[in-house]
TrEMBL record:
PANTHER family: INDOLEACETAMIDE HYDROLASE (PTHR11895:SF76), TRANSAMIDASE (PTHR11895). PROSITE patterns: AMIDASES (PS00571). GO terms for molecular function: catalytic activity. Residues 26-451 form the Amidase domain. This is Amidase. It comes from the Bacteria. InterPro entries: Amidase, Amidase_CS, Amidase_dom, AS_sf. It holds the Pfam family Amidase. NCBIfam families: PRK07486.1 (NF005686).
Length: 474
């Protein structure tokens, strides 16, 4: 029964828990056993509170026995991303300075998930301050890909994605500035949604006006991702931009939903980015499959002119604001590529930042025009397949040299300044068995529809049902 429980979907598990066909304690013990078995290899969960989780699961079972009202996530175990503050549980942000840091309060999305009945188990690994799409740091080391432990799990929500793929938990939280939900989802054959900014309130940082970073949900399927999103989303008075509300808990869908859909296929984002042949070999047949279902698929891409510069300017300016003083005082406090990003921010002017915001404004308006003609954009979620875990980052794609640790992440981050919802959904595998995700991008505020289309796509590709073999046999 144990192995059966760890790969049950979150929606199915939640129903079994509410009906008391299984107990929260049974579900927790099944996942703890899997963590004990495989986490020493995968290194996805970096802080673990078995005793606290068992107490919470026992209380959840008593609550069910008393006939009390149960939340939508009742009894589901979850380890939170190690950049999300968790009251009374170590939160390191992947940095040695915070090795023993224990926050006094929960971030809002963490509190919402716990209030919905989830069982807190631990924390999932991240890159240093979540900067980069490969999960390794000087506190805990690297997270390995469950499909091939010699490969990267992606990032920055790499621990979260790997934990899902390895059967450590049925749902996971993450965050995304330039692909940190989408890239690891692609690498680990799960679903990661970057919501429309405002869907999940931005109350966790010091700047609610920063337009690039959002928190969002992950799951092994779009349906499970939607369940978690329904809990994380919703307005907060602490974020003046959080005005959206949608019922996304259920995403009934069928492949026929693609009939008549206007789909823009952007395999290289209009020639802007190099993409590995292995990635293209996985996603090109999926575009053809949508066409065969009656979708009107055309080669096209939203206007991304100026997106790269706007993203890099705003990111670097934010990094300088957060860590510039510390870097000046402690030159060795950060890894070399994050330190370089911070220094770039220190060279920017207020004029540079405002012009980047003006470029975003133009891009958002052009995107609105684009989605008057199209319903959906499909593109690579990552330009590469999972690479060797010992690399800091890829330096070449199909003969194209990459100058820095951001260049290989452009497929997801070029969409970030447009303010659109975007997700990665499992789309295929390389001949060696490495996962490849398809990025799906919708019009602003259409997150629920995007999840429904991803669920319909899953019925076509069937990739979500393929479990890792690389970790399980070691």
């Amino acid at each position: 029964m144990t192995n059966d429980l760890i790969y049950r979907g979150a929606v199915e598990l939640a129903a079994l828990l509410r009906s008391r066909e299984v107990s929260a304690t049974e579900v927790l013990e099944a996942h703890l056993e899997q963590i004990d078995k495989l986490n020493p290899l995968i290194n996805a969960v970096v802080t673990l509170d078995e005793e606290g989780a068992r107490k919470s699961a026992a209380e959840a079972d008593r609550k069910a026995a008393r006939g009390e009202q149960l939340g939508p996530l009742h009894g589901l175990p979850i380890s939170f991303k190690d950049t999300a503050d968790t009251a009374g549980m170590r939160t390191t942000y992947g940095h040695p300075q915070f090795r023993d840091h224990v926050p006094a309060s929960n971030d809002l999305h963490v509190q919402r998930i716990l209030d919905a009945g989830a069982i807190r188990v631990g924390k999932t690994n991240v890159p240093e301050f979540a900067a980069g799409s490969h999960t390794f740091n000087r506190v805990f080391g690297a997270t390995r890909n469950p499909y091939d432990p010699g490969k990267s799990a992606g990032g920055s929500s790499g621990g979260a994605a790997a934990a899902l793929a390895a059967g450590f938990q049925p749902i996971a939280d993450g965050s995304d500035m330039g692909g940190s939900l989408r890239n690891p989802a692609s690498f680990c054959n799960v679903v990661g949604l970057r919501p429309t900014p405002g869907m999940v309130p931005n109350t966790d940082g010091s700047n609610v006006f920063f337009p690039l970073a959002v928190s969002g949900p992950m799951g092994r399927t779009a349906e499970d991702t939607a369940l978690l999103f329904s809990v994380m989303a919703g307005a907060s008075p602490e974020d003046p931009h959080s005005a959206f509300a949608q019922n996304t808990a259920h995403v009934p869908s069928e492949p026929g939903d693609f009939a008549g859909l206007r789909v823009a296929f952007a395999p290289t984002l209009g020639g802007r980015v190099p993409v590995s042949r292995e990635v293209l070999d996985a996603i090109e047949p999926q575009a053809a499959a949508l066409s065969a279902l009656g979708a009107r698929v055309e080669l096209d891409c939203p206007d991304l002119e100026g997106s790269d510069k706007a993203f890099r300017v705003l990111r670097a300016a934010a990094f300088d604001a957060m860590w510039g003083d510390q870097l000046a005082a402690e030159p060795d406090a950060f890894n070399h590529f994050l330190a370089g990003n911070i220094r770039e921010g220190g060279l920017l002017s207020g004029r540079d930042v405002i012009r980047a915001e003006e470029a975003m404004t133009r891009l958002i308006r052009k995107a609105a025009e684009f989605f008057e003609r199209y319903d959906l954009v499909i593109a690579p979620a990552s330009q590469v397949v999972p690479f060797d875990v010992d690399l800091e980052y890829p330096t070449e794609i199909e003969g194209h040299h990459l100058d820095n640790y951001l260049d290989w992440m452009r497929a997801p981050y070029l969409f970030t300044p447009l303010g659109l919802p975007a997700l990665s959904v499992p789309a295929g595998f390389t001949p060696s068995g490495l996962p490849v995700g398809l990025q799906m991008v919708g019009a602003r505020g259409t997150d629920a529809r995007l999840l429904r289309l991803a669920s319909a796509f899953e019925k076509i590709s069937s990739c979500s049902a393929v479990r890792p073999q690389g970790a399980a046999v070691l």
